[in-house]
Every structure is written in structure tokens, then in C-alpha cells.
């Protein structure tokens, strides 16, 4: 909030009286700064991490300027059991650890797979069975994407959507 005030940006306040608890609450809100748009080529020069999203974890690998993996891959878990608030907290926790690791290794960009479960190839590959529907229904694609983009913007890390094959081990081999 201090950064918003120093930059002469608007901050909205809401004061709420909770008579049942005998408390007053002050809530501050502001519009986040616009996220700068960068291309994959521009961002890879500043250091990058390739991230593969799974139904219970992020799998991440640091990449060099030629998109080759460096070191060992990392795993950031977000088990999806429990209530909606609990699942969201786990996603925030895993995303926070991913962003801290990105900052620690000097990466300014995260290349994340652009998942499209509506694609006909997906149904042909995995079928229309109960197991596939269960996997897709519990996969938090939209929540992961929105949470990662908003949290990364606050940290100054760019997000670039890439073809899914380039964020996994298969992509590393080819």
C-alpha cells in the first residue's frame, strides 16, 4: 500500500462495523499496475523457468538462454483435497514457493504450458471414460492460471504460455 501512496495511485478504503463481534474493520483496495507484455524471445534472455502443471503439483525446470534445462527439476505440490478455500490456499502456497525459487535462481520469466482440454486430440488420446472426466474435473487449470498470473505480476515475473510439449521431460529430450 505504501508503494501505491508513494506513486500517487488511488487507494479505496471501506470501513465496516461488525456489531455482533463489537469490531470495526478497515479494508484497503487498489487497482494493480498493468502487467508488461513481453515475447518469449525477449524473456528467455533474462532467465526462464519452464513449468508443467499437473493435477496435484507444478513441475518446474530452470532453462538457460538456449532453452536447455539446467540442474534438477523441482516439484511444488498443491494437493487438491478438502474445501475450496483450503485448495485455494494450497495453490497460493505452491505458487509462492515457485515464485520465490524463480527469484532465487534469477529467472524473470515463467514459461507455462498452455493447456486446452477442449482439443479433439485430447479426447482421442485419453478417451471419453470416467477416469479422464475425473482427471479433467479436478484439474484446477483456470484457478492455477489466474493465481499464477496475478501473483507473478506482483513479483515482476512475466508469464508466457507455451506449447505443452516444451515444458515437460519430453520437451527437454527434443
Characterization of the model:
The model has no long low-confidence stretch (mean pLDDT 76). Helix 3 (84-104) crosses helix 6. The termini are far apart. The chain has 7 helices and 7 strands; from the N terminus they run H-E-E-H-E-E-E-H-E-H-H-H-E-H. The protein has 174 residues and is of the alpha/beta class. It has helices spanning 2-6, 40-44, 84-104, 120-126, 130-138, 141-155, 169-173; strands at 12-18, 23-29, 48-53, 57-63, 69-77, 109-113, 158-162. The protein folds into 2 domains: 1-31, no CATH class; 40-173, Ribonuclease H-like superfamily/Ribonuclease H (Nucleotidyltransferase, domain 5, 2-Layer Sandwich), CATH 3.30.420.
List keywords for this structure.
Nucleotidyltransferase, domain 5, alpha/beta, single chain, 174 residues, 5-stranded mixed beta sheet, 2 domains
CATH class of the largest domain: Alpha Beta
Q: Strand content of the residues, in percent?
A: 25-35%
Radius of gyration: 19 Å
Total domains: 2
Structural class call reads alpha/beta
Ends apart, CA distance between termini: 45 Å
Average residue pLDDT: 76
Globular, elongated, flat, extended or rod-shaped: what is the shape?
Answer: globular
Classified in CATH, the superfamily of the largest domain is Ribonuclease H-like superfamily/Ribonuclease H
Would you list the SSEs in sequence order as H and E? HEEHEEEHEHHHEH
CATH A-level architecture of the largest domain: 2-Layer Sandwich
- What oligomeric state best describes the polypeptide chains here? single chain
